[in-house]
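Task: fold both queries, return tokens.
Query 1:
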Amino acid sequence: MPKLMLRSFPSQITLSIQVCYYNSENTTDDDIIEFEAGVALSEMAAVGSRNNVSISLLINGTQVWNFTLTLVAAETISNGTCGIKIEDNPLEDLFPFSHVILTLEICIPGGRSDTLNCTVFIEETSALGLQNVVLSKSNEKITDISIDYSLTESGGFINLDYLSWDDIGSNSSVKVDLAIALDPERVRFSDAYSVSISNKGMGTKRDVHFNKPEILNDENGKLLSTIHLILDNNITTCLRLPVNGEVPPLLWMKMNTSWLGITPKEYKVTFRGVDITCNSHGRKSLLVSFPTASLQEPLHGDSEFCHLIHEDDIFDENLKECEYKCECKDSVECGELFVSMANQDKIPPWELCDVSAVNV
């Protein structure tokens, strides 16, 4: 049955619709054409105002039916349970260049044609960004839905146009999927990130977690808070490494190799730092390995050492360079990297300035 939907028309306007039909050999006197007309008042209608809608049916220019409907605008009654919320579905930790889907449920009142505007807020210092917005689910009596969005430095804006029927029922809603992506160049591992969405004073918020390197005995997060300095492709920003007698006394870290911009296949990894060593034993040491079995606890389990294939002194920058080849065999072995750097001397500083990798 065709539906005639009147939306967003000013007063004193005439809307004409022409219907063409053809008789066929199967046409009988009992055949009928049915139309359903839906009328909704917008929020611009003044409370108490009377609004007349007349519908006439003409056949070959002759009026055969006429009907006038009077709508009285009543005060809007807000439903306390009607608003917006982000579904509490489990989210995977974010990795570099990956994204998670936040499902936003938006309550839609019945009997209106409207545009709903939502603001997505992400702190400007956050490593998160709004990547895409799509409609995922809707009530069949919420029609003419269109979505567009725009991005800003602090999130974005979502505009949802819709038309809802008056018999839609209470607490009907549409669901919108928001793809939230992670920019690894802006990550600070000690920070907590979240996404907030608001509409007309109503708001909802969801924390978004991302995969972080694990550092043994870094109880106050001092090392974790500066780990991003070794991943920024800048040898002038360096992580101060611990020495014997400090807490923790050494750097012992497990890192997902995606933070190095590589795929989980065999790779070469290079360390550059001030006063570091490529030796695996001695007063100072650097050990690089990868897991060979699934770990039950962080930094505990079987591992295999990567092979030192090149070392060099970069005199212009006062840096030491150590390059290793990690002959891992599958996505489990190639997906994580273990690093141990120890210094028995109590004379700082020694610093790690850059860690980079390439697949081979």
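Query 1 returned. Query 2:
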Amino acid sequence: MALTVREAIPTGLAGATACYIGYDLADHGVGVAVIVSTVLAILSTGLSVGLRFQQAANDVQLFTCPEGCGVEIRTTNQPSDSVARLRELATDHSQHPAARS
């Protein structure tokens, strides 16, 4: 499975943060067990955040007007009947304010 940008950014930030904090803890004479557990906790959090970003990105649907009038409708976690109704509303240019004027 390839790593997407949405997963890579929080994972990379968590990795960089974990390295910095691990180095800083070692510089202050903290024990190895504490450093390892801290670094693993930070990396785990980064992976969890990356996964949540990926899930959120997959749940969002965007419908735009094919006439280019600027109408956009975003849906997140909607039932299929609501999604169908919103898709129809977004793609029916005659119902948009720009088409009425």
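Both queries returned. Flag for query 2: The two ends are 50 Å apart (CA to CA).
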